[in-house]
Amino acid sequence: MTGKVEVLAPGPFATVQDLGRSGYAAVGVGRSGAADRGALKLANRLVGNPETHAALEVTLGGLRMRTSEHATVAITGAAVPVRAGGRAMATHAPIVLRPGDELELGMAQQGLRSYVAVRGGFDVEPVLGARATDTLGRLGPPPLVAGMTLPVGRRVAGWPATDLAPQRQAFAEPVLRLRPGPRLEWFTGSALSTLTGGGYTVTSELDRVGVRFTGPALTRARTGELPPEAARPGALQVPPSGVPILFLADHPVTGGYPVAAVVAEADLDVAAQLRPGQRVRFTLRDRTRAG
Amino acid sequence: MTTVLRYGDSAVLVEVDDVLGLQAACEADPPAGLVELVPAARTLLVQFDPARTDVATISRALTDLSIVERPVGEADEVTLPVRYDGADLAEVAEASGLDVDEVVRRHSSTTYVAAFCGFAPGFAYLTGLDPALHLPRRSTPRTRVPAGAVAVAGEYTAVYPHPSPGGWHLLGHTDAPVWDVDRPRPNLLAPGTRVRFEVLG
C-alpha cells in the first residue's frame, strides 16, 4: 500500500518541486522546478530516489508533516533545525519516520530554502510532464496548506547509501560569478564594474521568480524599449530604475528589459539561498575557465 | 543578417529578421547539442547542452543554416468578446490623442496575428495593433493584473491568461479561456492564430 504525508503546517511558503518541465517555452511555459536544484537532487539521493523525483521546497522553514506509514525522509538546502517524532535530527542525512511521527522544521538559520524528500517521491499529479509548481505560470500542484495530503510513490532507485552528506558552506556574503549578458552594450562602459563593486543587498522582494536588490543603478547607454526576448535563469535584468533583478526558477519566459549580465549556472543554487538583508558580491567569471 | 549573442553558460540569443524562419530551419536540421528554441519578437533563443557543443560551434552552425520558408497553413481565427472597462483606458486615450470610443474602435476593428508566446503560459503577443495605440509600457508595473485583462504595450496587444504582475496598459477584459492546461492544446492563441476582439455592451 502506498503511504501518504499529511501537511500539518506549511510554514511561510512551501511547494512541491521536481526538476521542472522542458520543451514548452515556445508556448510561454518555463522550466520552473526546484530553485536550488543541487539540494533537491541531493535530498533524493539520500533516500534512494532518482534525482528527478518531486520533493517539498520549504521557504524559511516552519513545515510540520506526519506520515501514515514508515517513511525515510531527508532534508537538504538551508541550515534548519529538525525534529522527528520529538527527537532532534540532522539535515543532509536520511531520517526514518514511524507511522504517526511528526517531522518538524524550525526556522532556517542560514540559507532560505530547504528540500524535504521522501523515499518513493511525492507522487502528485504531473502537469505538462512535471510535478513542479510554477508560481508565475500557475502550473502544477498548489502551494502547501495545512490539512493537505500528499501521496507517496513507490518507485525508487536503490537503497540509501550515505548516512550523512556534506553541507554546502554558507557565506555571510555569497559570491555570484557573472558573464557579460546579451544586452551589456545597452549600458555605459562602467556597468560591469558597478555590478562587481560590492554594493548590493538582497531586499525582501524575493520569491521564486527573482530577487530584487538595493544598490547602485546601472546607466543606460541606449534609450528606448527592447523588444521582448527570451530570458534565462541567472539573468540580471535591468528595469528602468537601473538596479538589476536576478531571475530564478519561475522567471518569465520572455522579458522586456535588457539583460546586463548572467550569473553562472553553477552559482544558481547559491543564489536560490539568498536571504533578505544579505549582502551579495558579484565577480566576473574567471575567463581562463570560461571556455 | 544574423547576430549571435552569448547568453550565459548554455544559450545564445540570435538576432535575425525572420525569427520563425530560423526556428523552422533549426527544427528541420537541428545543430548538434540543441536543447530548446524560444522565438520572440526579433530574436531566437537557442539553448544547448554544454556537454555536447559550445558557443563557437553552435554559433557557426546557426549562421550557416538557410532560413526555411514556413508553409502558410490554414490559420485558426479566434474571436474574443471584450468589455472595454480597463483601468488605463482614459490614460491611453489621452496619450494617443484620441477619445475613449476611438481607442475602443481602433483596438476592436483589426485582425491581429499571434506572433509568439512568452512572459507567462499562454501569453501571446498579438501583432497588428493600430500605430496610434503604440505606447511604452507603464513606468511602474502593476503588481497584479487580473486574468483576462486585454492590454496594449509597444506594438502589441495581449490577453493576460492569469493574474500576474504586468506593465501593460489595461483596456478591458475578456472571459474567454485563453489558457487551459486540461485542453489537449492548452494555449488558445498559438503562434499564427488570427485574433479579433468583439466589443461587448
Automatic annotation (TrEMBL), chain A:
Alphabetical keyword list: ATP-binding, Hydrolase, Nucleotide-binding
Gene3D superfamilies recorded for this chain?
Cyclophilin-like
Q: Which GO terms describe its molecular function?
A: ATP binding; hydrolase activity
Q: What domain of life does the native source organism fall in?
A: Bacteria
- Carboxyltransferase domain location, by residue? 26-290
**Does the record's keyword annotation contain ATP-binding?**
yes
Please indicate if the UniProt record lists ATP-binding as a keyword.
yes
Q: What is this protein called?
A: Biotin-dependent carboxylase-like uncharacterized protein
UniProtKB/TrEMBL annotation, chain B:
SMART domains from the xrefs? AHS1 (SM00796)
Residue ranges constituting the Carboxyltransferase domain according to the UniProt record:
2-189
Task: Locate the coiled-coil region(s) and give their ranges.
Answer: none
Q: Which InterPro entries match?
A: CT_C_D, Cyclophilin-like_dom_sf, PxpB
The Swiss-Prot or TrEMBL record annotates one GO molecular function as: ATP binding
Question: What keywords are annotated for this sequence in UniProt?
Answer: ATP-binding, Hydrolase, Nucleotide-binding
| Gene3D superfamilies xrefs | 3.30.1360.40, Cyclophilin-like
- Taxonomically, the superkingdom here is Bacteria
Extract the Pfam families matched here: CT_C_D
The name under which this protein is listed is KipI family sensor histidine kinase inhibitor
